[in-house]
Structures
1.
Amino acid sequence: MMLLEGFEGYVTLGDIISSRKWRIIPKSKGVYSIISPEGFIPKYTATGSGGYYKGTNPNVAVPTLLDKWVDTANILYIGKAGASDQKTTLNDRIKAYMLFGSGKNRPHSGGRYIWQLSNVLKLSIAWKICDDGEEPIILERQLLNQFIAEYGKLPFANLV
């Protein structure tokens, strides 16, 4: 997991949703990743738990999910939060992501394929705070490029 060097947290989505552990997520800019545990076997569902933001159906056909799955990768999604000209924090962005996944009308369609896994609560989330002067969008792009170099395509839930 060299891609996730320097990441911390590693809290299951089930634990965050059930206990609303928002306070443990830093109020800093950075990047985050959704990670599957060792031996994870995806179980797809036609209708996921993601919210319908602005009336848009977040679900895709199961064959699309099957095509996007990266068999040997445990990194399923890489996202970012904040920039030098934005006040969004990891706490804000991950909270929006989790609320979206709980069916709430929240603006977080990136990574939405995660919510069409019926065993989603077994996945974990980890984050890395960006140092002063380090831009989350640049770090996110570097991580995605490293992933593509290793696996030949984007992580499962990254769409662009």
Note: The mean pLDDT is 91.
2.
Amino acid sequence: MFLNFAALGIGGLFTSEGVPSQWYQTLNQASWTPPGWMFGTAWTIIMICFAFFMAYAIKSKETRVKLIWIYAIQWVLNILWNPVFFYFHEVLAGMVIISALTVLMAYMLITFQKNQRLATLFILPYVIWLVIATSLNGYILFYN
């Protein structure tokens, strides 16, 4: 769980300055953009759920290596999106990163559903949130 929240903390270094920034506030944003407080709440719940999944799934010796690789890639992508989008204002690059993260987590959900059927329910909030976040990034990309 420490690594999950470390990722949030590192990403938060860029998000905390980015959300209230003039650049972000003047963007044409989607009508379904959640209020700012919801992002921290959602990510906290998502990372707790994801930690439960990882604690359960890591026990499976047959999928452990694959799980660790996917986890590592999602960790990097999750952190990388924040500075790319909020600090460098690279909306297209952010879209590529968040799309890759969304596809990776959907792949994780589908792949591990075979062996850890109930545990994968803990990944579902992450995938749903990423679909929403990807749509928000896409809206900003296409309407600004």
Note: Helices lie at 2-18, 22-25, 36-57, 64-87, 91-113, 124-143.
